[in-house]
Amino acid sequence: xxxxxxxxxxxxxxxxxxxxxxxxxxxxxxxxxxxxxxxxxxxxxxxxxxxxxxxxxxxxxxxxxxxxxxxxxxxxxxxxxxxxxxxxxxxxxxxxxxxxxxxxxxxxxxxxxxxxxxxxxxxxxxxxxxxxxxxxxxxxxxxxxxxxxxxxxxxxxxxxxxxxxxxxxxxxxxxxxxxxxxxxxxxxxxxxxxxxxxxxxxxxxxxxxxxxxxxxxxxxxxxxxxxxxxxxxxxxxxxxxxxxxxxxxxxxxxxxxxxxxxxxxxxxxxxxxxxxxxxxxxxxxxxxxxxxxxxxxxxxxxxxxxxxxxxxxxxxxxxxxxxxxxxxxxxxxxxxxxxxxxxxxxxxxxxxxxxxxxxxxxxxxxxxxxxxxxxxxxxxxxxxxxxxxxxxx
Length: 393
What we know:
With 393 residues, this protein is of the alpha/beta class. The two termini are 30 Å apart. It has helices at 42-58, 73-81, 96-100, 115-125, 137-150, 172-183, 206-229, 245-248, 267-270, 362-366; strands at 37-41, 62-63, 87-89, 105-108, 129-134, 154-158, 188-190, 193-195, 237-239, 256-257, 284-292, 298-301, 316-317, 327-331, 336-339, 354-358, 371-376, 379-385. Strands 1, 11, 12, 13, 14, 15, 16, 17 and 18 form a 9-stranded mixed β-sheet that branches. Strands 3-4-5-6-7 form a 5-stranded parallel β-sheet, with helices on one face. The radius of gyration is 23 Å and the shape is globular. Helix 5 runs parallel beside helix 6 (172-183). It folds into 2 domains: 28-40 and 280-385, D-serine dehydratase-like domain (Lyase, Ornithine Decarboxylase, Chain A, domain 1, Beta Barrel), CATH 2.40.37.20; 43-263, Alanine racemase (TIM Barrel, Alpha-Beta Barrel), CATH 3.20.20.
């Protein structure tokens, strides 16, 4: 496990001011954690990290977890300790905490433009093994010029569209132009292909998700074949994610996968159809307190829109926690309204209770918090900073 942050520190108050109290301290019971707070169940987390690592290793496929899901160097260290080859970051600034933490292999799995971002990427390349994506020759030249000037070498991966319809070139001619442009600059080298199909991750039906993943892999394989016919070896084909990892590692096409949400299994991924032992464990929870029971059949908690992302659905009450299954019905800024099983049920016993919620979408929910409260068997074991929170440039 990564090093723990042993205690939360107070925000130093101005003269005569009041300090912000710590969210939690190591050793606290769940009921002592200030809410709303982001909880990480370490037993589930450990199992999820080990599960993905072993499945990929059995097929000789590398795991490069997506740090945009967790934004935490502590989690990245745990993934690296389990065998990950590095991490992905979606934005250039998002990678900064991981560079500073000594994560030595980072892939920027997204295109970027502009002098400032190019300069930042070059600065990172002086400290870590860096790879980046391009899908336009106009992205290549500034990077190549800057890399040569700085005396660094950057691995550049053309992105190919394998079904997402977002970024990436969609023709062999486009790939050829990018490879030729990369080869023109001594500070750059062709590192392989980025072949990511994001929407495939979220197809609920298992058969349809498998078929879509296979189609994406077939498209990626066609680009690899095209390059090989030109005498160009494609050392890396990277892509995939939590939803298609089981298919991608069996494809024979992908050399590495980029899953992110598997460490948490949020509500959306949990709602998908899974087969065999590929369902991961729910490990990320929002701890909330019932703050009002003024109406029969209804409880109101302190976790609303400022505490949890709702783009993939409202959070779900973790029903294994206690009797009854309240339904999270609506969210406003600071309130979450949950209906009890019966409209006339006495809600008073719930007042002051800590409840756990499963967020629908982990990535934007994580971005709302400064730290994880890492718990094991109902006790706080560590506080892990979310260092890349808000780094979206």
